[in-house]
Specification:
This protein is mostly helical. Helices cover 78% and strands 0% of the residues. Helix 2 packs antiparallel against helix 3 (48-61) and helix 3 packs antiparallel against helix 4 (67-91). The longest helix is centred in the C-terminal third of the chain and has 25 residues, at 67-91. The N and C termini lie far apart (68 Å).
């Protein structure tokens, strides 16, 4: 008699839970899902690209430091992202090409 397929998934789930990169990927996937739900559920489709880029910037800035180090890295990343987004928005009417 075969065992149920859930028993075969349990060791895989335990290995993924212990792996830091898998947990980081799950956090980013949850953030993407939240952005998608907010944008499409709330009718803010024009905010989608900006928020997705913000999630990517936050994921790239994620460091395994103490919480205060993470906060500083995220604040610097968000400030740089806000500066670049504002620059693109202000310079959009004046294309180089």
């Amino acid at each position: 008699m075969k065992s149920p397929p859930i028993k075969h998934l349990t060791p895989l789930i335990h290995r993924l839970w212990a792996h830091d990169k898998a947990l980081d990927s799950i956090k980013v996937a949850v953030a993407f899902g939240g952005v998608l739900l907010y944008c499409f559920g709330g009718g803010h489709k024009d905010w989608l690209i900006t928020l997705i880029l913000g999630v990517i910037a936050a994921a790239l800035a994620e460091t395994p430091d103490r919480p205060i180090g993470r906060l500083k890295a995220l604040l610097v990343t968000f400030a740089c992202f806000a500066l670049s987004a504002a620059s693109v928005r202000l310079l959009f009417p004046y294309p180089l090409l």
